[in-house]
């Protein structure tokens, strides 16, 4: 444990805070491990919140299953490790093209499943379903939506969505960020 804490101290603080914020948001049962079951609960919450039926509901489930198996291929046993170990695993892979490719693929798919009306954009009402699924503070959702909507047209394109998500997860040089993809950053 001491070596892990030492390694956590070596990770850029803002980046570690972002990763822990993601993991805490996805740790639905709050047991300190983001598991397959947690991911499937998020998928189920999206489906229920948006009142999705098949094939849209099946696409949501498949998106999260694919992400789960993809991460496990890049970071073996990722889903059975503690949040601290998951952060350390992500840090070890943050510069890896395979890691970036897996994240990008997931974010493209996640954009597609959140674009419930298939118009090529995520509206604010569509965006809210994801925030509800993660039990994030809905009063802050508009701030993040507006941050992602870089051209200020009132909707988020696939490029805007994926760029913001990748910036959140891969940018470890930013000393402070307005990107709050998962709400306020946790501190440790």
TrEMBL record:
<protein>
    <submittedName>
        <fullName>Uncharacterized protein</fullName>
    </submittedName>
</protein>
<keyword id="KW-0106">Calcium</keyword>
<dbReference type="Pfam" id="PF13499">
    <property type="entry name" value="EF-hand_7"/>
</dbReference>
<dbReference type="GO" id="GO:0005509">
    <property type="term" value="F:calcium ion binding"/>
</dbReference>
<dbReference type="InterPro" id="IPR018247">
    <property type="entry name" value="EF_Hand_1_Ca_BS"/>
</dbReference>
<dbReference type="InterPro" id="IPR002048">
    <property type="entry name" value="EF_hand_dom"/>
</dbReference>
<dbReference type="InterPro" id="IPR011992">
    <property type="entry name" value="EF-hand-dom_pair"/>
</dbReference>
